[in-house]
Structures are given as structure tokens and as C-alpha cells.
Amino acid sequence: MPSIVDQLVSHVLDTPFEAFNEETILAAKKRLIDALGCTVSGAGASGNDAMLNLFSEWGGAPQATVLGSGTKLPLPHAAMVNSLQTRSFDFEVCGPEPEGINKGKMVGHVASTTEPLALNVGEYTHATGKEMLAAVILGGDVAARISVSNTFNFDADFEVCGTSNAFGAVAVAGRLMGLNHDQLRNAFGIALNLMAGSYQGIWDGVHSFKLPGAAAAYNGILSCQLSVGGFSGVQDALESRLGYFNLYCADPHPDVMLADLGSIFYVKGQHKLHPSCYGNHNPIECAMLLRDEHGFTADQVEEVFLDVPPNRIDHFLNQVATAEDQQPKFLFTIPYAVANALHRGRPELEHYTEELIHDPAVLDLTARVKLRAGLPVGKNHAIRMTIHLKDGRVVETYREDPSGWLDTPAPYDAIVDKYWRNIRFSNLVSDDRAKHALHLIENLEQVTDVTELAAQLSR
Description:
Layout (H helix, E strand, L loop, with lengths): L3 H11 L7 H20 L6 H11 L5 E2 L6 E2 L1 H12 L24 H15 L3 H20 L11 H18 L3 H12 L7 H5 L6 H18 L15 H5 L32 H14 L6 E8 L18 H5 L2 H11 L9 H4 L2 H7 L2 E5 L9 E7 L4 E6 L12 H15 L4 H12 L8 H6 L3
Parallel strand pairs: 3-4
Antiparallel strand pairs: 1-2, 3-5, 5-6
Helix pairs in contact: 1-8, 2-4, 2-5, 2-17, 3-4, 4-5, 4-10, 5-6, 5-7, 5-10, 6-7, 7-8, 7-10, 8-10, 12-14, 14-16
């Protein structure tokens, strides 16, 4: 029996485009529409200019495009900046979600790495749309399978965007760059010595929370290019004594990662309808529901209580953001998400910018949103929201899952609407260019050179 890594390499290199049915191809296109829109909206977001300015100062071959600004950088630098931008509002599509025996297991933010990476490497290699689609499908499939081989744990794991995404990045780059079997196997071995990442950046609310996925994009390209150049890596990145399973997995289950390999592609994304962590979305939607249903304003709210499962209490989502905190902190806090929704309605990207996050009225209400351990363990997103109004009224609702989550997928029109929200927020890409880019993604099988897509998504 071939090793797991050999089976994955064969899967990445030998699966023909004809193996993908219409449903699989459509799911990949949805992910690209979603993620690349987020890449554009993240241009200039908090902290990102520091990296872009540094890479621009370093200079180098203008090999690939930074979306939004149109800056040309060396391939790995462009891919790293684009991944950083995609992750900036925690708005990009989650997943891809596992199916079959692995259904329901958590994967993370694979697309923040693989989608912009596929466009940049495709631009570099002058790939066709079919080649880019195949790389997105197979790279996401590999990354998701790496994720389900470990029990997802925010408190015990390396940041999954820095580990699973790195394998996905190698798969995407290796497929598009035309590596052979030995070269791609070796590239996975090189990547093993480059991956890492910590969830502490989310707890602290700092710009570095975006780095694991961005570094994965850089390292995926670096690993493939070094491998082609003859640089040798670990022989078995997964199963060796000090390979991925033994070093990076607190609870490894390598036996499940190959289930239905080649017959079921993990490709369907969970498409967020609001900026910020998915853990905020059910509270956001409950807050909007109660506000609209009972006709009160944020100024009339005395206190808000959320009964949640007990594992949500000692959690980064249960932190109160203050005027001293930076933009990333506000992406990962339920109290701010609820206060913002009560004040402003549907969350928009600008609500998570430096200009608006420190609004004193919103911060005042944020401090009066409290989480309580009042629901059983089992459904992490479930909440019972109780709002006490200053006039003595008490309004309440219960809900288990947010829109776009697993069994309630976002419709295609909502994904396209989200794309336009991202484009118009950025104010960098004209409507005509964005419309043409959307048309190219929707008809990607007919595109002969994806360089055109990168050009349309740039100023």
C-alpha cells in the first residue's frame, strides 16, 4: 500500500479535470467569487500596508499581482500579501467542508490561502481557467483532509491555517507548476519545516492572526520552487517519526483522511454573510431579528444576556473590546458584534474599520453584553438571547445556527451580493472591471489565461 503522502501526491497530480462534476465545479467557483472579493476588500486593511510597503521596498521581479492596488511583486510575496488581505475581515468563505464519514468536522479558513494563491501561481504560469479550477479543488481537498486527520482544538493545536493550509498551498502550486511525483512529495517534505502558527493572535486581537495562512501561501510556493531546484526535504512529511502526525496533531486520526479520496471532493464552502468570526453570526442575526421584530433602538437597551454552551465562556469570543484594542480584536468578540448589530443593523465592512470600531456609543453597549453558561454542550453556535430594555420590556429568542452554516448554505445570489459589497467597499476596482472579473470566474472553463482575471481585480 502506498504511503498516505504518496496517495495524496497522486491525487493532486493525476486527477483529470473531467473527474469533477458540475456541482463540484460550481462550488469551486463560488469559493473563488467569495474569497477573491475579500482579497480586494482587504487591500489597505489594518496592518496590511506594513507588509506591502516592506515587500515593495525590498523590490524584486514583478511576477504576480497584489489584488486591489495592482502592485507587482515576486510571486511568493504577492501571494502572501493577497492571503493577508483575504483574511483581513474574517469574511472569506470557510471550509471546504468535509463530507461522508468526516461530515461536520471543522476545517478552518483554507480558502484564505488557496484561492488567492491559485490566481497568483496561475498568473505566473499563464494557466488556463480549467487548470486553475483543478488546483483550487484539489488543493482545498488536500488541506481539508489534513484538517480532519486531527481533532480541531483551539486550545491545544497549532493554528490550522499555518499547517493544513500549507499542505493545500503546496498542492495548488505543485499542480499549477507541473511538478512530477517525486518533486511534489519532496515539496511536502520541505513545507514540514516551514509550517507553524498560534491562535494567540486571535486572543490578543493583533495583526499577526493573519500570518499563518499568509505564510502558508508563501511557503507553499517556496517549497515547490526549491524542490524543482533540487533542494531536498523530509522524505515523508506525514507519517515519519517527526512528521506532521507526530509533531502537530494532539489527537491524530490519519485513517480517516483518505476516505472516499478521488470520489468525493471536499469543495463546498460555508459562505459568511457578515464580516467577523462565524461565532459572531448567530448572535448578530438574533440581535437584528429582535430589533426589527420589537421596534426598539440601541439607545433603549439596558442589558443583553446570551445563554451559550459552557465552552463558549472561556473563549476568545467572550472578550469585551475597548477603545485601546486594535481592529483584529473586534473581529473575534461577540459583545461588540451584538452591540454593533443593535446600533447599525446588518454588519458591513466599514463597521470593522479603525474609523468606526471605537465609537463610544457602541463600546458602551458592548460592555453591557454578557455571556452566560446556560445551554448544554453540543451545539457550539446555539444561543438564547435575552434583551432587557430601559422601559421594562424583556425580549428573547433562541436559535441554533447562523445563515450559511452547513445545512443552510448561502444561495448563489447572496454570494454574488457579498462580492459586490467587498468590491464597492474597497473603492479600488471599477464596477466595469469587477463585472468582467465576475464573468470570467463564472465562465472559468473557457478562460485561456487567468492573467486577465488578476488584471481585472486590480486598480
